[in-house]
Amino acid sequence: MAWNTTGSSAAGATPSGSWSSSYPSNWNTHPCPEGYRLPTNTEFQNLINSSTVSRGGGWSSSDYGYIKFTSGSNSVEFPAVGYRNGGSSGTLYHAGEYGRYWSSVAYGSGNAYSLYFNSSSLSVNTNDKQTGRSVRCVR
Q1: pLDDT band for position 79 (50/70/90)?
Q2: Three-class SS of residue 41?
Q3: N or C: which terminus of the chain carries fewer CB neighbours within 10 A?
Q4: Looking at the DSSP assignment, which residues form a beta bridge with residue 33?
Q5: Do the Cβ atoms of 113 and 41 come closer than 8 Å?
Q6: 31-44 burial by CB neighbour count: b if 16+ within 10 A, else e?
Q7: Contact present, 99 and 113 (Cβ < 8 Å)
Q8: Where are the beta strands (DSSP E) in the chain?
Q9: Is residue 106 part of a domain?
Q10: Does 48 score more than 70 pLDDT?
Q11: Cα 139 to chain center, whole Å?
C-alpha cells in the first residue's frame, strides 16, 4: 500500500488498493513488484556488517538525512523519510531524521524486523506491523 510521504497526518492520504487491518499472508513479497521481495533481517544485518557506513544530509525536516552503505565499488543509500504511527491518525513522525525499512521476517504474530537508523544509530530491530515503515525491494 503506497502512502504519500509528506504532511503530518494521513487524512486524505488514501493508500493505493484496499486497506485492511489484517496482515498479508505473503508479507515477504506483498509490497513489491513481481520478481522482487523484501530483504530479510539477516540480509540487513549482513549489509551493516560488511559495508562502510556513512551519513549525509542535515537530519532535519528541511534537509533530510540519509545513510549510505558502501562495499567495494557498490553502494546503496536509504533516505531518512520518517514513519507513520500505528494508531488511527497515521501521523508522519521524524521525516528527515529517522529511517525505518521493513524486512520480510515476522517476529511473533504482529511484529516484523526492520532496519532502523538516525544520525547516530544503526540497527535491525522489531516493530508492530501496523506502523507505516518504508520498503526497499530487492531481486
Answers
A1: very high
A2: helix
A3: C
A4: none
A5: yes
A6: bbeeeebbbbbebb
A7: no
A8: 52-56, 66-71, 74-79, 83-84, 92-93, 99-107, 111-117, 122-128
A9: yes
A10: yes
A11: 17
Alpha helices in 32-135 (DSSP H): 41-50
Quote the pTM value.
Answer: 0.79
**Does residue 124 sit within a domain?**
yes
Where helices occur in the chain by DSSP H, the ranges are 41-50
- Looking at the domain assignment, is residue 111 inside a domain? yes
Over 70: is that where the pLDDT of 38 sits? yes
Specify if 119 maps to a domain: yes
Residue 104's domain spans which residues?
41-128
> Domain tally for the chain?
1
Cβ 65 vs Cβ 97: under 8 Å: yes
